[in-house]
Design goal:
Oligomer: single chain
Distance between the termini: 85 Å
Largest sheet: 2 strands, antiparallel
Strand order of the largest sheet: 1-2
Shape: elongated
Radius of gyration: 31 Å
Order of helices and strands: HHHHHHHHHHHHHHHHEEHEEH
Number of strands: 4
Number of domains: 3
Number of helices: 18
Low-confidence stretches: 1-14, 16-31
Strand content: under 5%
Length: about 375
Amino acid sequence: MFRSIFLPRTTHRIGCATMLLLAWVATTALADDIDDLRRATAWVEQLGHDQFADRERASAALILLGPAAKSALEAGRRSSNREIRYRSTKILRLITEIDFQRRLDEFSEDPDPERDYDLPGWKRFRDLVGATSATRSLFVLMQENERALMAATQREDHGMAVLASRCGELRRQMQFGGTDVALGSVVAFLFVATDARINITPGIRSTLYAACASSSFQAGIESGAKREPLAALTEAWIGRDDMQPVLYALNLGLMYDLKGCLPKARAGLKQPATPSDAIYACLCVAKFGDAADLPLVERYLENINICGQAQVNGRIIVTQVRDLALATAVKLSDQKYADYGFSRLQKRRREVFDLSSLGFPDESSRQQAISKWRAFRKQKTK
């Protein structure tokens, strides 16, 4: 009986002590905040002092006080005194920059994936591309190159207005011959654009694809430690882009060897918006697909649209989509190209085939090759 009554009372006393300690800490912190605000407010008033030395002393004190002086400086920016407004604006900008660089440095040195140091976008970026050291390095570049855009992701429009503005600036830059874009900028554009809440306009879309062709992005995604997170981010963008035509997304997948473009390629073969969509979809399936894609490819064995041409011995030989479809089917089934009349076939690292090398010298040769394929497939499906 005594034990059952005694223990809860002991626990109660310990709990009360802990609560009192926490309350004391909170009260002390609040008191410190109030003291900082009072000091900052007093120093802000001194920014308008008649003596230059006093104004300088107040400026230095506010800079040393750091982020704790922000609210007082914000009030100072609305002061009726011109000198206070000027100095408050200047000091606030400096304090904000120093605080930003401090947090960025701490983030760079801390491998803990759960800590973001109040840098906007980290959690979604981490979930999207991982939390490796290369990922953190890219995130730092995003913050350095596109600080305003990253900050805007916390607004109601999730960065839409700033993204549209920055893409407009880039389009104007490209009009005057400037095509290269800083890697951190390209990554920030792609990151914001992968947010499903963002409305992607045709202008933003075209600018994103142009930015992905920049030398800085190409160098990062083709090799090295940044390859994996950049590939994951780009594949997320390819999957996010739901506009027509799809050839831009598929070309991006081919260019940077991104298998994540395969679902869009398969959808492009099922219902292409343009003849070029079917061509790029077929090339993507040839590069990343497998034998399960053969029924999709075979739908184009009657497609006579032209997709390439070459001059051979003074004669123009045209490549049709059905030639590309046949070459793709041969590749997916591990057959020999020569057995199906592709005597001039040339391979490419990015696009798999040189389209101009797939054409047949005459219709008879083409029909013979297609008939041979159909016979092979019929035998295989028995």
